[in-house]
Write a structure and sequence with these properties.
about 375 residues; alpha/beta; Rossmann fold; 3 domains; seven-stranded parallel beta sheet; 12 helices; globular
């Protein structure tokens, strides 16, 4: 539920509760005893558990919530040790053979991107996943394994590594694939690869994920992604099911070095993003000239309600140590034209800014999910 703030037009979320005032006090005391970080969130997690314990739901519902929370907690803990490392998630078939063209392209891409300082996240299985872990090497690899009765044993290049994480549920596993990555490379594969491809595009096209490079990597002369591109252009965009602009959210390549170049170019000037007080803030490795910002404001006026302007780091960004030293610009973005937003990022990256002027800052401490905006008052989902 939300309530009106007296004297303003803004609304804020009412304090969350277990529904029992006495229990709330005991839960708050427990949070204090735990010396928990983010004590407000720790309280809400406990209050939700208390509600779930009393709600008229099935044991299966409680088991699902319990397992999912345990899986997420453990995965968050593992990834937290590498929060400031750039990571690329690789998807592709578990069924490609060692030495096949797909295997070798995946291995070579992983080798090249790891040599540039990136870490590689795979599904930990055989095929393309094994090739990714092999190419990156154990020190630069993560494995996010799904426990199934077939086709899902961890490959030998990640087995025994502390960065191997096993999941019972696909949805928690897929959350980690997306949340922890700064780029995505998809190679030919089956239902799972196509599922991940469409989910990535859906999350990005709807703004439920930040913009990232999404690269569809095929073998030289391969037809897998060519056929996919033809389907998307003719049967999706051609029939109006997606916008032509949405096709800018992905790139088709057939060379590992070109895939690496696409990812590095995406982060040439652009660094990261965060919504602050209703505006989209782009953190940059260099501040563009004023005339370039004016030109971009005019060129992309369709998705903007005002000009692109330089801004200082917000108090919330400073509090979170969210790359506060980087220059940044604010966009009054309509949160609809994400393909066009990707084109804006491409234009920023193509600006003739000398390489020596670009600040290669480390990644932001933590990727933020859309809706986690920085402001004293922001619209939140209603309490349940």
């Amino acid at each position: 539920m939300q309530e009106q703030i007296p004297g303003t037009g803004a609304r804020r979320r009412r304090p969350y509760s277990s529904g029992d005032a006495d229990l709330d006090e005991r839960l708050r005391a427990l949070v204090e005893d735990l010396a928990a970080e983010d004590r407000d969130l720790a309280f809400e997690i406990l209050a939700t558990a208390a509600r779930l314990a009393r709600d008229p739901v099935s044991r299966l519902d409680r088991k699902l919530a319990n397992s999912a929370l345990k899986e997420m907690r453990y995965a968050f803990s593992v990834f937290s040790r590498y929060r400031r490392e750039r990571k690329v998630t690789m998807f592709g078939s578990a069924r490609v053979e060692r030495g096949s063209p797909e295997y070798e392209v995946a291995r070579e891409f992983a080798r090249r991107i790891a040599a540039r300082g990136w870490m590689v996240v795979t599904g930990a299985g055989p095929g393309v996943m094994e090739a990714g872990n092999l190419g990156a090497g154990a020190d630069r690899s993560f494995g996010i394994n799904i426990v199934l009765p077939f086709e899902a044993k961890p490959n030998v290049f990640i087995t025994g590594d502390r960065k191997l994480i096993n999941f019972k549920y696909f949805f928690t596993r897929k959350l980690m694939f997306v949340k922890e990555a700064d780029a995505f490379v998809l190679l030919p594969g089956g239902w799972g690869t196509l599922d991940e491809t469409f989910e990535l595009l859906t999350l990005t096209q709807t703004g439920k994920s930040d913009l990232h490079p999404i690269v569809l990597l095929d073998t030289p002369g391969g037809t897998y992604w060519r056929a996919f591109e033809r389907f998307v252009r003719e049967d999706l965009a051609g029939r109006g099911f997606v916008d032509d602009e949405d096709l800018r959210l992905l790139r088709f390549v057939d060379d590992p070095e070109e895939a690496v170049r696409e990812i590095e170019t995406f982060y040439r000037v652009y660094h990261s993003q965060r919504y602050v007080g209703g505006r989209l803030v782009l953190r940059l490795n260099a501040m563009p000239p004023e005339d370039a910002l004016r030109e971009l404001s005019e060129e992309f006026a369709e998705m903007l309600s005002g000009p692109i302007v330089p801004v200082e780091a917000s108090p919330a960004e400073v509090r979170d140590d969210d790359v506060p030293d980087l220059p940044r610009v604010a966009l009054p973005f309509d949160r609809m034209h994400f393909g066009m937003l990707r084109r804006l990022v491409d234009r920023l990256n193509a600006l003739p800014i000398p390489e020596e002027s670009l600040r290669k800052a480390e990644p932001a401490p933590e990727k933020r999910l859309p809706g986690q905006e920085s402001a004293d008052v922001v619209p939140d989902p209603p309490s349940q």
